[in-house]
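User: quick one, fold this
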Amino acid sequence: MVPSLTMFVQEFGRVNRLLAAALGAHGYYLYLNVSSFLTLWARCMRQRKPEVRSRQHRDLMKALSVIVTPTECYHTAVEREFECPLTFVDRGRCPNLCPYCTGAYKDFAGTVNRTELVGALTSSIFDRGQVAAMKLVSFINDEKNSGKLRRSIWGKKTIKTGQVHGLVLMLFAAEIIEPTFKEGVSAGRNNHRLKDIDVRLVKKTFQRDGSSYEVFALNDPNAWSAFQLNSDNN
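Assistant:
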């Protein structure tokens, strides 16, 4: 995982720097999982100045969103981020050289059943509030019950381990869930550990008829736009 799109560009910019290889002959591969994201999140939270903490957190979430919930060619997304908005020109998609253009991004988490996933999150995982961040993947795998929860979400017995991590990362990117510190642990310290981090469902405030009310973000259909959902949820 990378902490920002700036670092993302710095890293994959090293591929074929001399421009001596044929197009697509070399590649940049990014390996990420839940613990790598949480490690970077904790690093952001260690910053003593709130404004620095906020900026680094914003950069991290932007990078995560572009990478795991893409809405356009990765190359276009990067160009759009760093070029001047007044002169930016969409050059079109790359020739199948990024996960978005090849369609590989659809396999990050695979196809899931939104109804079953929402039910699992609200009734089985977060039914008593926030949970330990490093246990979230195992809760979804649900090995204690022979993977019953996992099968209900994906509709099949066997899935790739990486797809569970992919699903959790997509939930973070879509702001359906968010990391937070356990009670008694605060930001601005330099000794945060992964076991100090919990995960909770995100609540959003909506306005209607002059009144404001809170609902869980997972109840907003728009929050699921980047997910591959089975036909029952489309």
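User: anything notable?
Assistant: The radius of gyration is 19 Å.
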